[in-house]
Amino acid sequence: MKRILILGSTGSIGKNTLKLAKEFKDEFRIAGLTAHSNIDLLQKQIEEFNPPAVVVSDRQNAKILEDRIGRQCEILYGEEGLIEIAQRNNYDILLSAIVGFAGLKPTIESIKLGKRIALANKETLVVAGELIIELANKYNSEIIPVDSEHSAIFQCLQGESKKEIEKIILTASGGPFLNRDKADFENVTIEEALNHPNWNMGNKITIDSATMMNKGLEVIEAYWLFGLPKDRIEVLIHPQSVIHSMVALRDGSIKAQLSSPDMKLPILYALTYPERLNYDGVKTDFKKIAQLTFFEPDFNKFVCLKLAYDSIDMGGIAPCILNAANELAVEKFLSGKIKFSQIPVLIEDALNNLYEDSDLSLDTIESYDQKTRNYINNRYK
Ligand code: NAD
Ligand code: MG
């Protein structure tokens, strides 16, 4: 029986994880759940999974929840609550599925306890990759990717050592605007951008998929997870999202991992690795898929993807600035304050004006995250 602490249980990844916990009652027990503000759903999850403790965003939500459920479970709140629940030694696996920078600190606490991290929150590796890998080595914490591309690569690398890898091929659906003119990006509506062709995900990652920043963040994620230089991490457009990624080996062989697109598979693997469970919840029928196609990404059109690669070259604090500017740009697009076409403009502006040489402690990372948010907020009201 594995005990799982889910950070972000009311999100798309969190809900899929709970579906698996329900399916495999004898394998998994829920050691804790956290939600930002959807306390209605959290309440249902508490009733169904009976966790000893939960976390919500603030005191007010904690109070509302307490009035509803009484002493059924402990209710913590705020960033302190997230850190405290992660520091408790009552779980085996942290499923890190908060969206954005907010996932970083509790994930670090769990690494310090040497827990397995089933990592969906890619932003953690983007902003603090070097620190995270260092800490994971120091505290013997296994980081198992939940992101489908990285799970695919991780699976392809079983039985291979690093010296055999020629390159990693990260596949990308291309998102909803693969065939739309760049000149027309100005007119993209929020509804169009939220309409992903293959995946049903949270709003932030869905917009990231539309700008292809998601793939950019994934290149940085792969850079830290697999320790390869950026010119050996290639992006390939594959609109069907059936091949989740590939690894080219030095003898010319290529390994790939395939299935119908469904996040339950990489989540399950991160929970059970190195074993697998009998599961028939995801069906893949090649007769229905019929064809798999591939082509090169257009870096001119998807500027965010280029900026992410550039930030690896800049190094240091650059990916943290890129991430913070992107989080804010997405928020502003979703609230109607900027156009879709402005998202990369804001990010480039922040990178050009805020980047400087600096050490990479958690303190500097937090301070640049904040600095970037202030900068963008002041310039694009
Ligand atoms: P989501 O928006 O559906 O859910 C986010 C979760 O985080 C919710 O439970 C929400 O309550 C919580 N949350 C949001 N802001 C918070 C804050 N400031 N403090 C504390 N909690 C907060 O997002 P998602 O699609 O489930 O994605 C979660 C993470 O997994 C992201 O980093 C995303 O990039 C990554 N990911 C998601 C998918 C997918 O298919 N959804 C695939 C790969 C990777
Ligand atoms: Mg992915």
Describe this structure in words.
The protein has helices at 12-23, 39-49, 59-69, 78-87, 104-112, 122-138, 148-156, 190-193, 203-211, 213-226, 264-272, 286-289, 303-314, 318-334, 343-354, 362-379; strands at 2-7, 28-34, 53-56, 74-77, 93-96, 116-119, 143-145, 165-172, 233-237, 243-249, 254-258. The model has no long low-confidence stretch (mean pLDDT 97). It is globular. The longest helix is centred in the C-terminal third of the chain and has 18 residues, at 362-379. The protein has 381 residues and is α/β, with parallel strands linked by helices. It has a seven-stranded parallel beta sheet with strand order 4-3-2-1-5-6-7, sandwiched between helices. Bound molecules: nicotinamide-adenine-dinucleotide and magnesium ion. Magnesium ion binds next to α7.
Q: What's the helix and strand layout?
A:
Elements: E1 2-7, H1 12-23, E2 28-34, H2 39-49, E3 53-56, H3 59-69, E4 74-77, H4 78-87, E5 93-96, H5 104-112, E6 116-119, H6 122-138, E7 143-145, H7 148-156, E8 165-172, H8 190-193, H9 203-211, H10 213-226, E9 233-237, E10 243-249, E11 254-258, H11 264-272, H12 286-289, H13 303-314, H14 318-334, H15 343-354, H16 362-379
Parallel strand pairs: 1-2, 1-5, 2-3, 3-4, 5-6, 6-7, 8-9
Antiparallel strand pairs: 8-10, 10-11
Helix pairs in contact: 4-5, 5-6, 6-10, 6-14, 10-13, 13-15, 14-15, 14-16
The structure holds nicotinamide-adenine-dinucleotide (NAD) and magnesium ion.
